[in-house]
Every structure is written in C-alpha cells, then in structure tokens.
Design brief:
The complex is a heterodimer of chains A (120) and B (897). Chain A has 120 residues and is α/β, with parallel strands linked by helices. Chain A has a single domain, classed as Rossmann fold, CATH 3.40.50. Chain A is built from 5 helices and 5 strands. The radius of gyration of chain A is 13 Å and the shape is globular. Chain A starts with a strand and ends with a helix. In chain B, a hairpin with a 5-residue loop joins strand 8 and strand 9. Chain B has 4 domains: 376 residues, Amino acid/polyamine transporter I; 82 residues, no CATH class; 108 residues, Signal transduction histidine kinase, dimerisation/phosphotransfer (DHp) domain (Helix Hairpins, Orthogonal Bundle), CATH 1.10.287.130; 149 residues, Heat Shock Protein 90, CATH 3.30.565.10. Helices cover 68% and strands 5% of the residues of chain B. The chains are: A alpha/beta (120), B mainly alpha (897).
Chain lengths: 120, 897
C-alpha cells in the first residue's frame, strides 16, 4: 500500500483528497501546514506528497526545501497543488525539485492520474 | 619752521599712507576696505587743495562765489541713484577702465574718439595737477617761511613732487587689467579725505572760537571792512547767470572729471554703495564749507591792508599766532587734499594715455610679437612711466606757467575743458541717435572754443605779451573778442567760455548726429548702453556681429595677452554661461564680445576691438539689420529668461512626476499583490466546491453521511465565497470614496452592545467572559451600521485569539475631550510589535498564527481602518498589560459638516 501525505490548510479540500486517495488504496496522512508536515515526516516516509503553497507558518516552498534536505525522503515524489498559477511560481516550484505542479481548482481525476504516473 | 623738519614730517606722513595703501591692498576683501563709507569718502577726492585753500581765497576776495562748485554736485547727487548706477553697470559689464573708454565704446568702439577724449582730458587735468603741486609748493614755502627758488633743484618742493610721482606710479599700476579695483589707493584716499576734513574743521574752530569770539564777532568786525557789502551780494541778474553756469559746470565735473570717474565708477565694488554716497558725500561737502567763510573773513580782518595771498589764510592765521602744531596740521590737510587728487588723476590719465593713445596708436602692432609676460610688463611700464611723467610734466607746467594764477581760476579752467565731454557722455546714456561723428565734431569744436576763449587768453595773460588779441579781438574783429565772444559781455571769463563752448558742442553733436546716421556698431552700443538693465546678465547677447571667426584664432590672441591659464578659464566660463560645446570650432558674436571684454581691461576697448578684428572676418551689416537683430536679441533674452523659468518648472514637475511614478509603481505593486491574493482567496473555496462536486458526480457508492458532508462543504464554501466578494466590494467602495457614511448622534455604549449581541452565541461556545465598561451617556456622531461592523470585527478577532480556557474580552469606552476612544482587548498571546501597523493591511494574516487558519478573509481590519478614517478617527493596535492584543479606535464627538 502506497503512502500519501496531503498538506493543505483548507479542510474541505483535504477532505475531498483524503476520501479519493483512500478509495484508491492509499494510506493517507494529513498535515494542516508545513510545520505539521515536517513533524509527520520525521516518522513517516510517504511515497508521495501533495503540497499546498500558501499556508500559515511554514509555506509549501520552504517545506519542500526542508524535505530535500532529508536523505531518507530522496525517493519521495512531491506534487505542488496550489492556487498560485503564475509562471514564476510554477518555475520556482519546479526549480526547488517538485515532480509536478498542479493548479487549483483541480480535477480530482487528474490529480489521481498524476500521482499514479509519478509512482509507476 | 625748518624745511628739513617739514620734509621729515612729510616723509613720515607719506610713509604712513604707503603703509595704509599696502595694508588695504592685502586686505582687499575685508569689510574695512570694502564698505560704502570708504567708497563715499573716496569720492571726496573732489575736494582738492583748490577747495582746501582756494575756496578761502575766493571767499575772501569775492564772497559767495566759491559756493557753486559745491552746489552743482549737491543738486545732481540724488540722481546718482539712477544715472551713476547705470554708468557703473555699463562700465562693469564692458570692463571699462576710464571715461575715454566709456565714451569711445559707446560710439562704436572708436579709437579716434578715445584719443580725442584723452587729449581733452590731458589739457584739462595737467594744469589741474599743476595747481595741486603749486599749492603744495606755495604752502610749503609759507610754512617754512622760505622763498621759492628759481633753480628747481634747490627747491625742496621739487623733491616732494618726485616722491609723489613715485608713490603714485607704484601704487597705481598694481594690475595689468586697468579695470581691476585698486583697494590700496582708494583706502588711502578715503583716509586722506577724513584727515583733510578734520584738519580743516580744526582750523575753522580755532579761527572762529579761539582767534575770534564766534561767528557773530567775525561778522561784526568784517562788516566794518571796505567792500564788505559789495563782495557779499549776488550782484544782480548777470551775476546770477554766472552762478547758474558755475553750478552747471560743477554738476558736469562731478561726473566727468577723470578722477571722479575713477573713484565713483571704476573703483566701485558694489552698486549699492552709491546709496550711502548719496547722503554722505553732500554731508561731507556741507561740513567742508561751514568754516570757509569765517576763515576767509577772519583773515581779511587780521591781514587788512597787507598784501598776502588770501589762499593761504588758513596757514597764515595760526602762524600769525605762532601756533606751529596747527600750522603743520593745516599744511598736512592741504597736502592730503593735493596728493589724493594727484594720485587718482594721474592713474586715470595714464590709463587713458596707455589704453586710448599709446597702445591703439602704435604699440599694439609691436606688442603682438611679444610673449605674454613681456606684454604685461610693457603695459604696466607704460602706465608707470605715464603716471610718473604726468606728475613731472605738471610740475614743470606749474613752475613755468601757473605761478601767477590763483588756485581757483586754474581749477575752473580745468572744469570747463572737462565739461566738453558732457554732450557725448550724457548722450551716451540717454540718446540712441548720438553718433560718433557728432560726438567727435562737437567735442573738437567745443574744445577749440575753450582754447580760444579761455586757454589762449590765460596763456597770454601769463606771458604778458601783446594783449590786443584780448582787447580788440582776432584780426581786430570786435565780435571775436575772446572774452566777449559775439558781444556777450556780462559773463565772467569762465561761465562765458562754458556757455559758448558747450552751446556749440551740444548743437553740433545733435545736428551732426541727426544728419549723418552712425554705423551699425554705434547703434549696437547705443542699445547696449541705454538698455543696460535688459542686457546686464547676458550682455554678450546684445552684441551684433556677422562673419566668420575661428575660436582657435581668438584663443591665440587671448593667450598672448592673458596667458594660457586665464584664457582657458575664461573660455570655460563662457562655455558654461552660454551652454556652448567646447569643441565648437566657429566663434559667434557673443564670443567676440566676450573676448573683447577680456582684453579691454589690459589694452582698452579700441585696441581690443582692433586685435580681435585682426583674426576674424567680419561682414558689413546694414543699420536696419542691426536693429532687427537687436529686436530679436531682446526677445531672445526675454525668451531665454522664460525658457529658464519654464525649464525650472519642468524640472520641478518632472521631479513630482517621478515621485508620483514611484508611488504609482508602489501602488501598482500593491494592486498586483492584492489581485494575487484576491484570486487566491477566491480560488480556494471554488477549489473545494469543485472537488466536492466532482466526487459527488462521479462516485455513486459514496456513503450517505459523507455525501451530506460534501454537500455541506459546497454550501459553506459558497457562503464563504459570497462573503469574500461582499468584503472586497465594501473595501473598494471605501477606497474609491463611493461609500456613503450616514452620520447621526448615538450613545456609544448602546452601539457596542448592539454589536456584541449577534456574537453572543460564539462567545458562549468558547466560554469567554466579556466585560463592557464606560459612561453609558457618552454620545458621538457616527454611522451606526459601520461602527457596529468595526466593533463586530474587533470582537470576532478577539474571540478568535482568546485562549481555549478563561477567555476574557474587555470593551472600554473613554471620553477624550473631543473624541471618544473605544478599546477592545483580549487575554490572548498578543500581537508582535512589528505587526502593529501591518495588521491593517489588506489580506494580512499574522505570521504568528500558530493554529488553524481563522475564518477571516484577511480584509476585516483593512475595512475597519477605512471606516474609522471616514469618521476622521484613528485606529491602532497595541498589547495590554497582560500581553493580550488591544485594538483601539477614536472617533470625533462632532463631525464637521
């Protein structure tokens, strides 16, 4: 069973993602901001992380930088899922080493497809 | 008194003057040498030995006749404010160095006219200097009680003349540029003016109050003398006319005497010094004249019946009473009066002789082949030798011609000759049409009449040769009798000569000027002189010139005379002044005029023009063309002024624009950030709605409970979306000023309670205690709905930030004179001081929020701020004593309509 970590501060969005990935046989972890995500990642090593960018305290970009520093998470794929849809933001996200960048609002099917693609 | 002792005293006195001049020269810019009083006192060089001794002679012999010489200047002095200032301005911008320069420049920079003026001045001033030397010599002999020796080498006064000549030639030629200021000489002259006045007043007081018993006593005794009555009346109409002409004569002299021109114009350092001179100089003349009469008549009483020279009464009286100190003092006063005149006149004359005679006629050609340092040396040497020889020539004039005449008569002859400059001089200031030919012919004819009616008869009188010329007229023609020309027999010789010479001079000047138009250059200078105020700053603009000239050629000439460094500096100044590119090859009219001006101080206007024209190719211009160009240049100057003004305005505007641009860019950035945030905030609920809807649509197996939850999500996110849109619109209305605020008077506490009411459920849920305090009757003008909105917002925030347990919110209302202050404070963890101001920014959400994102839109406080500002109040954040956040706002009790 693949492990997925969903990091977003919007509970209703998280709820939709959680429901869908559970249905697709993922083990789902939830974090409400960057700091919480990093705490979880101390003990858990998910296969893929879905990361929002605009969050209180530690934002998505900073979270990814921290993730990249952790060698145990080398294999872990990261998808940004953000309402920030400017070219510059997407470039910045990819430059930081994200594997994909999806913009909000999103189609859940597309997100699942992207996740599966990355995990194959 | 022993000659040797007196010579030693004189040597000491001269030594002191040397020292003062030297000191002043060094301190050239100190306020001691650079003030209006020094300037005004230096003008008193007008009062020469002639005044000092001669007035007494005249007063003793013919009563009040000495007065017109002072009345003329006093009458015209108020007009200095305009006329003298104008002359000073013209001379300053054109670097004029003498009256000959001034006149010749106006009439088209005419070399010939300059030379004529110089010769006229020589004729007028040399005898005048001789007169000063005569007074020194005679008084020297009076004081030492010696006789004048017929062998000039035995006569001690010869050596005095030599000493003077050396003093003047050293101190008068410090600079090559004759238009430079000679601070040393001027200060020494001012000092001498003080001394001669003080000594004269001392002798006056001595005679009036010590020798006699006051003015009344002198009058009483004098009135008993023979001819007293006759000597002290004006003498009917003919005599009044004499008076009138003498006034006119001295009125001209105060402008035209080379020494007056020197001190009042050339040595003027600041135009507004004239303002002081206008009252101080007449006062000086007045003081000088108070005791003339008592001394003169005191002398007449004391020496009645003896044949003594009444000119020397002021010396004879103290000597008569054996008062040696006073005698020497009076002598030194007269000596001061004489040498200041000699020095200043000889400097002025020698500048004219060098710049208007020797250099333009002859020396210029030879100078051109010399090195710069040699040229400067030569020019200075010419002037040195000039000053020296002028004084020595004058001395011989005195020895061989002027021995027999009274001081007064020689002085007047000089005045009449100098007065010949009047038509061309005043014409230069006030009449555009005055032409070179007119000026030259008027001047020559006037001068010839002077010779005929004054100099020749005087010369004949001196040599006592056949006087039939005077009694019978030229060729025996009665009408041509020199002292009664054309039968005019009731004027004294001086007014008579003045009348005829000036009449012809003026008429010919006007007639010729009107009949024969001057050339374009004369007309050009006429405009520059008359409209000096228009051209004062950019006067090179007023110079009309057409042709081809290369800058390098002109620079070569300048380097010859000014040296490499000064030329370079001057060119830089020119380039800056007129914004000319330094690589420009061709020279324009402005550069030509500028260069002429640079040379003028060294070699005079005429030579400067000759030099510059030798390296440029000038085209003839017609008079109408000149007038057209001048008209344009006048307009140009006005336009230029306007352009500068406009350009300054533009600079200001552009600075403002830049500021505006910066703030616009800042606003733009803010707007971008705002839009970014808005889109993000709008997309978030849409994202949730879309995700929930997609699941509901695709997934039929979804459990009922979850299905309802997703539907609930859609509903709440839609509400959130709607609230957000409302707030954005709200804020936008406030910011663009379209939000209406309806003021009415309300009790503040009631409004607060109204605001809390709907929040009660929320408060109860979190077990928060709310405490409200303040005067329930406190009223203010405000829009209740809006203030409710503010309080709701603040309390909602407080609720959000209150701790889970024991939450406490305190609302307090304070009376602050004209304002009501409301505070909402909680016992949460407070606000970081950095954020006290930023929390009122749009979409600000504290970085310190360490909990689940609050329901807020990030616009609440920004809207509160807008509302409070629309009430002309303030809103701010602090932390309270317990560390919780405290948000306060004020609103005025009364709203200004």
């Amino acid at each position: 069973m693949k492990k997925i970590l969903i990091v977003d501060d919007e509970p209703n969005i998280v709820m939709s993602l959680e429901y869908t990935f559970k249905k697709n046989n993922f083990e789902v972890f939830i974090a409400r901001d960057g700091q919480e995500a990093l705490d979880i990642l101390k003990n858990q090593f998910p296969d893929i992380i879905i990361l929002d960018i605009m969050m209180p305290l530690v934002d998505g970009f900073e979270t990814l930088e921290q993730i990249k520093k952790n060698e145990q998470l080398n294999h872990c794929k990261v998808i940004f899922l953000s309402a920030k849809n400017k070219e510059s933001d997407i470039e910045k996200g990819m430059a930081l080493g994200a594997d994909a960048y999806l913009t909000k609002p999103f189609s859940i099917k597309k997100v699942v497809e992207q996740v599966n693609d990355l995990l194959e | 008194m022993n000659s040797i002792v007196l010579l030693i005293i004189l040597a000491l006195y001269l030594g002191i003057l040397f020292f003062i001049a030297h000191w002043a020269e060094k301190k050239g810019n100190s306020k001691w040498t650079n003030n209006p009083y020094i300037y005004s006192l230096s003008l008193a060089v007008y009062c020469t030995a002639w005044t000092y001794y001669g007035s007494i002679g005249v007063a003793a012999n013919s009563g009040l006749n000495y007065l017109p010489i002072y009345l003329g200047p006093i009458i015209i002095i108020p007009a200095w404010m305009i006329i003298l200032k104008k002359i000073i301005r013209i001379s300053r911008v054109n670097k004029v160095s003498s009256i000959a320069d001034f006149i010749s420049l106006r009439y088209g920079n005419s070399r010939f006219l300059g030379a004529v003026v110089t010769i006229v001045c020589l004729f007028g001033i040399l005898p005048y200097i001789a007169l000063q030397l005569k007074s020194i010599a005679e008084t020297f002999h009076v004081v030492t009680q010696t006789e004048s020796s017929s062998n000039i080498f035995d006569d001690s006064t010869t050596y005095v003349a030599f000493a003077l000549a050396i003093f003047a030639s050293i101190y008068g030629t410090r600079y090559v540029d004759a238009s430079e200021k000679r601070k040393g000489i001027v200060t020494a002259v001012a000092l001498e003016s003080v001394l001669k006045l003080v000594f004269f007043i001392i002798i006056g007081v001595y005679v009036t109050f010590f020798v006699f018993d006051g003015f009344d006593d002198i009058y009483a005794k004098a009135s008993l003398l023979e001819h007293f009555q006759q000597k002290n009346t004006i003498g009917g109409l003919p005599q009044a006319i004499n008076w009138f002409f003498l006034c006119i004569l001295s009125l001209f002299a105060i402008f035209l005497l080379p020494r007056q021109f020197q001190v009042s114009v050339i040595e003027n350092t600041r135009e507004n010094h004239v303002n002081t001179a206008v009252w101080l100089f007449p006062l000086y003349l007045l003081l000088f004249n108070i005791f003339v009469y008592p001394i003169a008549w005191g002398g007449n009483i004391l020496f009645d019946g003896q044949s003594v020279n009444s000119d020397t009464y002021s010396l004879l009286i103290p000597q008569f009473f054996d008062n040696k100190t006073l005698t020497v003092m009076v002598f030194l006063g007269g000596f001061s009066a004489a040498i200041s005149m000699i020095v200043v006149s000889s400097i002025g004359l020698s500048t004219m002789v060098s710049n208007n005679l020797i250099i333009p006629y002859g020396l210029l050609g030879r100078l051109k082949h010399n090195e710069q340092s040699t040229i400067n040396k030569k020019i200075v040497n010419i002037r040195k030798i000039g000053i020296f020889s002028l004084i020595i020539i004058s001395y011989f004039l005195y020895r061989y011609f002027a021995l027999d005449y009274s001081l007064f008569s020689i002085g007047l002859v000089a005045f009449v000759i100098i007065a010949q400059l009047a038509p061309s001089f005043f014409g230069a200031l006030f009449w555009r049409r005055g032409s070179r030919t007119g000026a030259v012919s008027g001047l020559i004819v006037g001068f010839v009449i002077c010779l005929y009616t004054l100099l020749v008869p005087y010369a004949l009188g001196i040599t006592s040769s056949d006087t039939s010329f005077i009694t019978e007229g030229l060729f025996g023609i009665k009408l041509l009798k020199p002292l009664q020309l054309f039968g005019l027999d009731y004027l004294q010789p001086v007014p008579h000569a003045l009348f005829w010479s000036l009449l012809f001079n003026f008429m010919i000047y006007i007639a010729v000027s009107v009949s024969f138009k001057g050339n374009y250059r004369e007309r050009n200078y006429a405009e520059m002189f008359l409209d000096i105020n228009k051209y004062i700053t950019m006067h090179e603009n007023a110079f009309v010139w057409k042709g081809t000239a290369y800058r390098t050629d002109i620079e070569k000439v300048l380097i010859k005379f000014l040296g490499e460094e000064r030329t370079k500096r001057a060119m830089n100044i020119f380039n800056l002044k007129y914004n000319v590119d330094k690589n420009e090859e061709l020279a324009d009219a402005r550069l030509i005029k500028f260069s002429e001006n640079l040379l003028t101080g060294h070699i005079g206007t005429a030579s400067a023009k000759i030099l510059i024209s030798s390296v440029v190719k000038e085209e003839k211009i017609t008079l109408p063309e000149v007038l057209k160009i001048l008209e344009e240049s006048k307009e140009n100057i006005i336009i230029n002024k306007k352009l500068i003004e406009t350009s300054n305005e533009l600079k200001e505007i552009s600075a403002k624009l830049q500021d505006a641009n910066v703030s616009l860019m800042e606003k733009d950035k803010q707007k971008d950030e705002f839009l970014d945030t808005v889109t993000h905030e709008l997309r978030t609920p849409i994202t949730a709605i879309r995700a929930s809807s997609e699941i509901l649509y695709d997934d039929d197996e979804i459990p009922e409970e979850l299905r309802k939850q997703f539907l609930q999500n859609i509903i709440s996110e839609s509400d959130r979306l709607n609230r957000l849109i409302d707030k954005i619109l709200d804020l936008e209305k406030f910011e663009t000023g379209r939000q209406k605020v309806n003021f009415a008077t309300h009790k503040v506490l009631e409004t607060i309670e109204n605001a809390i009411e709907p929040l009660q459920q929320l408060i109860n849920n979190k077990y928060i205690h709310v405490h409200v305090e303040g005067n329930g009757n406190l009223k203010a003008d405000f829009d209740e709905d809006r203030i409710v909105q503010v309080v709701t917002n603040l309390v909602s925030n407080a609720i959000k930030f209150c701790p889970e347990n024991n939450g406490l919110i305190t609302l307090a209302v304070y009376d602050k004179h004209d304002f009501v202050q409301v505070e909402v404070s909680d016992n949460g963890k407070g606000i970081a001081p950095n954020d006290f101001e930023t929390i009122f920014d749009k979409f600000y959400q504290s970085t310190n929020q360490n909990f689940k994102k609050p329901i807020g839109s990030g616009l609440g406080l920004a809207i509160c701020k807008q509302i409070i500002e629309h009430h002309k109040g303030k809103i701010w954040a602090t932390n309270n004593a317990t560390g919780g956040a405290c948000l306060s706002f004020t609103i005025p009790k009364k709203q200004q309509p």
